[in-house]
Amino acid sequence: MGAPVMKIETKDFNNLLIDAASTEMKIVGRSYSWTNGHVHSRIDRAIVNAKWIQEFPHVEVVALGPGYSDYCPLVVHLEATSITKRRPFKFFNVLAEHEQFQYVVLTAWNQPMKIIWYKIKADKQGLKHLNKQEFSSVECRARDAREKLSNIQAQMRSSSHLPRLFDEEKTAKLNLKKLILIEERIMRQKSRMN
């Protein structure tokens, strides 16, 4: 842990919490939210008032794993929602940068079809398949990659730092970074469409 915090340093903030009738939410998961590998510190808190606690008594703050950062984000899950409906195919620019993009398009256009509409439809089917294969559920894949990285890092903390764990961590970080960039680019394009 870092240097101990003196009571005088937090006196004003504690008084503010008392005056506002606020309290800290219960945190589940890690006991710290920042680390540099040697020092672990809890620098973040979720503050609520009595009305919040009455409205949402079951809600907790979850301290997530740091992933490839030194910071553990805090998340408040209010309600789990699941939407399972078919969505139309949307072309995202990240798809055009995939190594198989040109192959899919050329395959469709080299078919012995005379009407351009059929070629466009064939393009759509091929790109839809490529999109589903490479970019669908990127949020879930990124979440799984974060979990995998977190598990590797947990093993590194609890084991005798096997050399293979360093290689696995490096590979997991690269995979997570790739998925985060794809997710970010897709979200950016979606925000412009909306």
UniProtKB/TrEMBL annotation:
Protein's UniProt name = Uncharacterized protein
Instruction: Give the source species.
Output: Anisodus tanguticus
Q: What is the lineage of its organism?
A: Eukaryota, Viridiplantae, Streptophyta, Embryophyta, Tracheophyta
